[in-house]
Amino acid sequence: MENIILFGALGIMIVFMFMNNKKRKKQADELQASIAVGSYVMLTSGIYGEVVAFDGDKVVLESAPGNKLTVNKLAIRQVEASAPKAAKPAAKKTATKTVAAKKPAASKSAK
């Protein structure tokens, strides 16, 4: 009787493992299918970039203007909704500080 319960529990665990594996594979396939030129993506290393071109299993990303990376398509962790908007550079303020002149330290005479 005890063996039947153990085998039943083991069988249920194996079924759940296969179901979870199928679910994860389906999500990975959907992610790979959603990647298109112009997509803003994040790599597994944390690098963000825009997809510029495909070359088989490789993807060319532009992480900064003029900076292109070639990575494996499987290195893409997620597709972002949109690229972040570039922040406008703040107007440079010139701070004028008056610095008081320091007096030289008194020198000790050597005897």
Mean pLDDT: 81
Number of domains: 2
| Poorly predicted parts | none
* Class inferred from helices and paired strands: alpha+beta
Q: The CATH topology of the largest domain, please?
A: SH3 type barrels
Largest sheet strand order? 4-3-2-1-5
CATH architecture of the largest domain: Roll
Largest sheet: 5 strands, antiparallel
Can you put this structure into words, describing what you see?
There is one protein chain. The chain has 111 residues and is of the alpha+beta class. The protein has 2 domains: 1-34; 36-82, Roll (SH3 type barrels). It is 30% helix and 26% strand. The chain is built from 1 helix and 5 strands; from the N terminus they run H-E-E-E-E-E. Strands 4-3-2-1-5 form a 5-stranded antiparallel β-sheet, covered by helices on one side.
Short note summarizing the structure:
30% of the residues lie in helices and 26% in strands. It is α+β, with helices and mostly antiparallel strands. It folds into two domains: 1-34; 36-82, SH3 type barrels (Roll), CATH 2.30.30.60.
Descriptive key words:
single chain, about 110 residues, alpha+beta, SH3 type barrels, 2 domains, 5-stranded antiparallel beta sheet, 1 helix, elongated
Write the layout of secondary structure elements.
Layout: H1 2-34, E1 40-43, E2 48-55, E3 58-64, E4 67-72, E5 76-79
Antiparallel strand pairs: 1-2, 1-5, 2-3, 3-4
